[in-house]
Amino acid sequence: MSDRLHYEAGFHVSWERFHRDARSLAARLHGPGQPEWKAVVAITRGGMVPGCIIARELGLRVVETISVASYAHKDQGALQLLKAPDAALMGDGSGILVVDDLVDTGRTLAFIRERYPKAHLAVVYAKPQGAALADTYIAEVAQDSWIYLPWDMGLVYVDPLTRKGNSE
Ligand SMILES: O=P(O)(O)OC[C@H]1O[C@H](OP(=O)(O)OP(=O)(O)O)[C@H](O)[C@@H]1O
Ligand code: HPA
Ligand SMILES: [Mg+2]
To answer: Ligand 3 is a single-atom ion; what residues have CB below 5 A from it?
Structure first.
């Protein structure tokens, strides 16, 4: 049995931490040796948050989206492209920064890589199973740890460890 408290299970990321980590990702993609990026392409929906932060840091005004959905009930989780980015902009992906919040199994990034082999795939968090598919990431998170992103959470009351000291 785990000795973790129920609210500690997983990796809970605050807005501040996410902003800091996304900025660190931008910093890694900037400077000597890095290409002149043409555009940021965010993988919806989670990639739009770091995509915005990175576009701001790198001074990129061209921001596109790619939308991929998983139909687990239909075809063993086959991925389907719901919305493609502009084909003329994308080409084979050269100079394109594709951004997502995280890579887990790697299925999403593998899908993107197949279509845009020259794109740079950047994510904030990576789990070991999919990490090799990302060209750049900031932090590795255990495979069995669920990453709770700030837009999926809210402030909630947490019980103290003991009722001792409470009147009743
Ligand atoms: O490496 P994988 O196993 O493919 O998982 C990673 C993807 O899963 C999540 O997106 P999700 O499809 O849940 O959609 P969302 O971004 O709209 O929340 C996450 O934002 C990544 O895009
Ligand atoms: O750990 C995760 N957190 C949030 N979304 C996800 N999608 C795949 N894995 C994760
Ligand atoms: Mg996503």
So the answer is: 46
